[in-house]
Amino acid sequence: MERKIEKYLIKWKNSSRRMPLLINGARQVGKTYSALNFGKTFYRNTAYFNMENSTEITAIFERDLNPERIVRELSAKIGQSIFKSETLIIFDEIQSCERALTALKYFYEEAPEYHIIAVGSLLGIASNREKYSFPVGKVAMITLYPLDFEEFLWATANTEICNLIREAFETCAPMALHETAMDLYKTYLVVGGMPWSVSEYIVTKDFDFVMVAQKTLNDSYIAEMAKYATPHETTKIMAAWSSVPGQLAKENHKFQYKIIKSGARAYDYEIPLDWLKAAGIINKCCHVHEGKMPLAAYADNSSFKLYMADTGLLCSKFDIRANIILDNPLSFYGVRGALTENYVMQALVTNGIDPYYWSSPGKAEVDFVFQDRKGSIIPLEVKSAENVKAKSLKLFMSLYQPPYGIRVSAKNFGYENNIKRIPFYGIFCLTT
Q1: Are 41 and 168 in a shared domain?
Q2: pLDDT (0 to 100) of residue 126
Q3: Which residues contact 359 (CB under 8 A, 6 or more apart)?
Q4: Pair 154, 130 in one domain
Q5: What pLDDT, on the 0 to 100 scale, is given for residue 125?
Q6: What's residue 85's pLDDT?
Q7: Residues 95 and 208 reside in one and the same domain
Q8: Residue 251's pLDDT is what?
């Protein structure tokens, strides 16, 4: 599957200031595949090491952290030469070997000619720091997310429609293949962007196989966290994780601890929620009480909404069958808002946007607000229903006078009353 991270990796390879690179992200988002595919395409050879299942490889780092010695012994272990600037060295599951993570500092300082990509779980890296320090400032870091809608279109042989969507986005002109693009968007809602789910869809076109993959992935995340958390913490993590669909199914998506358990308090579940965020399986959107720059200065971190990192996994947690979304029956309307809002949040985070939500002392609320590169605060409202009247958006714009507002809905591209209309399928084009 073609991934956008490849463009970043090419720049990293060619940079004169290249550091060892750490690719992190949730389990099964394609980190290892992306690194291996990059090595196969752009290097003379690739030296791959899985740090999780080899005590011999781990032992290589125990003696000392001399890069040249480490490379010689790694080369002997796999029986192939490692060439400076021509071999891509991949350390997979690097969180399993603290010493290897620390060694990246010495590769940067003493042997920068070696090209190294480390792949790891952010959760494991954050948790597994008992003896050695993280090489702050000595490694580059990038987070890989599930496939966004554009990558999904590439994977399903719909590349040309991507070009048409981008053209319409740039011009704010209606797109002729609007209905076709909307149908593909609905399919993406069901399948999501986890590579395993996308692969099952491409190969089988059977949504039952897709849902089996999604349920397995959902379960595997709890197993991953249980490796690092205590049994007591794991129980709370599972309860918080199980509550996310219920939080989104409410009319007001603001996170409420009582949904987890009657009488639950923030004190009891702050750490479990941090675990879920560190695992990369939820996205957190905090409240701001002002639409002014910088947004972070007006954030209330105690008031927030949680979204799942993948719409397909959310569908699986809701136990929503594909035909319900694809056919749009009336029974689907109750959770449609949750799915569409989750989809937009996922797209914003994937594009490097740090969104908040805004509300006034009254009932007005804008789903997302974010700060662009010019420092302007842009409001974005999501409308899942046919009615796209946006009183809250208009109130925000009258109060704070942003250069424009954004409405994301099922309607085609357009621009009127200083509001950009973006259909759901076009949100991947939005960057800061």
Answers
A1: no
A2: 55
A3: 287, 289, 365, 366
A4: no
A5: 56
A6: 95
A7: no
A8: 80
Paired residues of 365 in beta bridges: 359
117, 143, 169: which is the final residue of a domain? 143
Structural domain for 202, as ranges: 149-429
Pairing of β 365-371 and β 377-382: antiparallel
* pTM, two decimal places: 0.92
**Mean pLDDT, the chain cut into blocks of 10 residues (432 residues total):** 96 96 93 97 97 90 95 96 97 91 95 96 57 75 96 97 97 96 95 97 95 92 78 88 88 89 88 87 94 94 94 90 74 74 96 95 90 95 73 94 96 95 97 86
Residues 199 and 318 in one domain: yes
Same-domain status, 206 and 275: yes
User: For the chain, what is the domain count?
Assistant: 2
Q: Do 137 and 161 sit in the same domain of this protein?
A: no
Read off the amino acid at residue 111.
A
Output the pLDDT for position 130: 53
